[in-house]
Amino acid sequence: MSRRTRGCLDGHFLIAMPGMTDPRFERTVIFVCAHSEDGAMGFILNRPQPLRFSELVENLDLDSHKRRSGSNKSRKVGVSDCARDFPIQLGGPVDTGRGFVLHSDDYMSESTMPVNDDLCLTATVDILRAIKDGQGPERGIMLLGYAGWGPGQLEQEMAANAWLSCPARDDIVFDLDHSAKYNRVLAHMGVTPAMLSTETGHA
Questions:
Q1: Mind telling me which Pfam families this protein's record contains (predicted)?
Q2: 25 and 62 inside one domain
């Protein structure tokens, strides 16, 4: 399991302000997985994709008989249920051909990175095989691509009133009502959309 020093925005939401001019991030909710002096990385949580997990695994060589390096605390639902229900979303505009799984901490492998006390990130094929075999995490989403910032870039954008931030909540991370997620995060912060133009960047 990977170990690292957590940044101050690790495990936080970023909520795009009305002044966000980049259409790729308009009205987005982003979960920050890594934040340091070297930059930041996160995943958009409200851009669902029409691709189904069952279609994805059909296009990958996921031999269910290969040895798995991951483990989970208990056996999950059957293969067909996992393949049908596991959500796939657009995580961001960077490296969209690469997949990441943000998930609950009941699945661990050598490449799994804890993000906060409850959530982990795994980006290897082992977790896809585990999900296909009904041995994956209890909760999770697959994200294609990610959002990235260079050194100091996110701090500059927040100072320019591009983002609000607040601690993330697992129930919102895994909520599949994507159309309501943006307003739900704002309501959790005690903010209404009409108030956003007067906000200064941090919750």
A1: DUF179 (PF02622)
A2: no
Boundaries of domain holding 97: 53-144
| pTM exceeds 0.85 for this model | no
CATH code, domain carrying 41: 3.40.1740.10
pLDDT tens-digit series, residues 151-172 = 999 999 999 999 999 999 999 9
Q: How many domains does the chain have?
A: 2
137 in the same domain as 152? no
Q: What is the DSSP string of 149-203?
A: E-TTHHHHHHHTT-EEEEE--HHHHT---HHHHHHHHHHHHT--GGGGGG--S--
For 132-152, give one letter per residue: b (16+ CB within 10 A) or e.
bbbbbbebbbbbbbbbbbeee
Cα–Cα distance for residue pair 9/152, rounded to 1 Å: 13
